[in-house]
């Protein structure tokens, strides 16, 4: 099997996800040592998976109970000692009562503030936990989606490389020759503004065919399903006005790849 076919077979992604047997994984490692292109592709897949995981990672607040209780209780203040004298007892008693009232009011207000802060921390921690649960569910769904694509032998993996006008960009297209389904992933493209969208084109019988529009934003992760395509020989991506164009703007072609 040629190096290009080996890379496009999907076995490298399965190796990164840990879905190979020990013998299959050893063969991938041997191929990576023998072929620098395979080693580079493995590093690229691992980097993309790490970026997706880091985007979805949220660290919860540790030792919540101890920190909140410490804030509520605070340092214990000693009881004020109010000296009593035989003379002017009433005046001093009244002053002592007023002082105690002020101290009690300040203490009550301080306790209330600490309680409200603790309550806000609890709400924030609950929101963080909800985000963690939602992100973990999303990550599991993406992992299942990757497995479904990579394990299906009819899916072709097409690497779209940057054009001379827009260096440093790339993208992956997965095309199912049997069902005509098209998925895109690993979009290393500049973020588009609100007035433009990227448009995927399939080259069919020498003509560009619209395969759908998509956005590239900082929080993008996972595969996107595009329009079904039949008998494609290549794929390309251009930047078009929002909603897409009837024909591709060739001067705005960012990436392209042949099947």
From TrEMBL:
InterPro entries: Anti-sigma-K/W_factor (IPR051474), Anti_sigma_zinc_sf (IPR041916), RskA_C (IPR018764). The chain crosses the membrane at residues 89-112. GO terms for biological process: regulation of translation. GO terms for cellular component: plasma membrane. GO terms for molecular function: sigma factor antagonist activity. It is found in: Cell membrane; Membrane. The keyword Transmembrane applies. Its main location: membrane. Gene3D superfamilies: Anti-sigma factor, zinc-finger domain (1.10.10.1320). It is a single-pass membrane protein. Residues 104-249 form the Anti-sigma K factor RskA C-terminal domain. Keywords: Cell membrane, Membrane, Transmembrane, Transmembrane helix. Pfam families: RskA_C. This is Regulator of SigK. The lineage of its organism: Bacteria, Pseudomonadati, Bacteroidota, Sphingobacteriia, Sphingobacteriales.
């Amino acid at each position: 099997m040629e190096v290009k076919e080996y890379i496009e077979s999907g076995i490298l992604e399965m190796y990164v996800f840990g879905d190979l047997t020990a013998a299959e994984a050893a063969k991938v490692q041997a191929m990576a040592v023998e072929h620098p292109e395979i080693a580079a592709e493995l590093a690229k897949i691992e980097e993309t998976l790490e970026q997706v995981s880091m985007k979805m990672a949220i660290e919860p607040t540790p030792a919540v109970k101890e920190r909140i209780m410490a804030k509520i209780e605070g340092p214990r203040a000693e009881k004020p000692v109010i000296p009593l004298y035989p003379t002017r007892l009433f005046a001093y008693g009244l002053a002592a009562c007023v002082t105690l009232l002020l101290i009690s009011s300040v203490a009550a207000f301080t306790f209330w503030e600490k309680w409200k802060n603790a309550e806000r921390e609890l709400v924030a921690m609950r929101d963080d936990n909800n985000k963690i649960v939602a992100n973990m569910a999303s990550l599991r769904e993406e992992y299942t989606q990757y497995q479904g694509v990579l394990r299906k032998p009819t899916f072709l993996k097409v690497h779209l490389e940057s054009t001379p006008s827009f260096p440093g960009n790339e993208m992956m297209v997965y095309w199912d020759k049997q069902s005509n389904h098209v998925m895109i992933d690993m979009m290393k493209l500049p973020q588009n503004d609100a007035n433009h969208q990227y448009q995927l084109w399939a080259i069919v019988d020498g003509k560009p065919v619209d395969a759908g529009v998509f956005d590239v934003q900082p929080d993008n992760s996972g595969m996107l399903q595009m329009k079904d395509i039949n008998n494609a020989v290549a794929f390309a991506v251009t930047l078009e006005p929002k909603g897409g164009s009837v024909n591709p703007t060739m001067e705005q072609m960012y990436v392209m790849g042949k099947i």
